[in-house]
Every structure is written in C-alpha cells, then in structure tokens.
Amino acid sequence: MKKLDIIYEDKNILVVNKPSKMLTISDGTSAPTLYEEAREYVKKKHKSNKIFIVHRLDKDTSGVILFAKSEKIKKELQNNWNDLASREYIAILEGQLKENSGKIKQYLLEDITHKVYVSKNKKGEYAETYFEVLNRTNKNTVVRVFIKTGKKNQIRVAFASLGHPIISDKKYGSVTNPLKRLGLHAYKLGVKIDGKYYLFTADIPVCFTPYLKKE
To answer: Model-level pTM?
Structure first.
C-alpha cells in the first residue's frame, strides 16, 4: 500500500491529498483507488474500522478529499454538502482569459460517452462556478475557482465553454499537455462538522509553480 498523504485525521473524518491519475472510487476496473487505500489505512489501526465516501474528485484532479469514519457523519455531510462545504481549486487554462473574475452559470447534461456538455435550454443539472485570475503567462491563465455546486466535470466544462480549457484536458478540447497531468487541483476545503468549522489545504503541486510566477 502506498503511504497516504494525510492532511488531517480525528475520530470522525480522514482528510487526504489525492494524487492525480488515481480514482477516488472504483469505476469497475482493477485500477487502485484512494478509497481502497484509505480503507486499508484505517483497518490497520483496528480491523473493525470503516471509511465512507463523502465526495469525489475526477481521476486526473489532485487535492483535498474528505472521508467520513461513520455512516452518521457521511449522511450528515452528503445530505447538506453544498451548504456545509466551501471548495477552492487552482486551474491552469490554455490561452489568455480576458476577464479578471467572473461567474459561470450553466445547465449540464451527459452524453452516452460520459462527456458532459452545456445544455442550451436549461435542461440538466444546474452548475455555478466562480473564478478570479491569479496570474497570466504568455500562453496560459491561472485561476482560483470556487464552486457552489459539485457537478461532474463542472469546472472543466465551464472553462472549455469559454474557449479556455484546462491544460492537458484533451476530453474537453485542450491541445497542450505540458504537465503530463490535468492542470486542476482541489486546493482548499472548508467544512462544518458538529457545529465546528474546519479548513483543509492541499499544497499546490510543484509542477504548477512556474505558472504562478510573473513573467
């Protein structure tokens, strides 16, 4: 078992930094998953320990993921996730985004190939994405992203629809792959549990650093 990159742990939750190119939970293949690693980790402490999925990140997205240690905590969080959780991402986009900040409101649908696209007639699931520019380089724009809704591929579709897909995101139109991984990282997760507020941060990947420097 790989060593989990643990950000925080107590009797209720386990918070880890998920690496890119790892599934959160199984997609039916034999590929290793973060859930399996987390489950093995807690069972090593005591065989009766359990772990529960609360939310997910796409396979190629890195960053903060929270697991619950009881079904009670899992249900409390999942039933009110958008109200209890605040999520901040760092994304590296292709090209120069003109706006310094903005709000993207969309309705999303999924086709038979599991690709998400923007509905033109307000059918599908509502998604709300906010962004502000952190830095611009000659070829890219780095943005801080906040989401009010956690829909599948929401951030990736939002910026692709603006003509600035996330780098290395071939699925949504990216034509560059300088990082050899998706340029999207779940940087911060704030969450309220039993009346107490927690804020967790996953260090920005080292490979993102050159894009954050002023040119």
So the answer is: 0.94
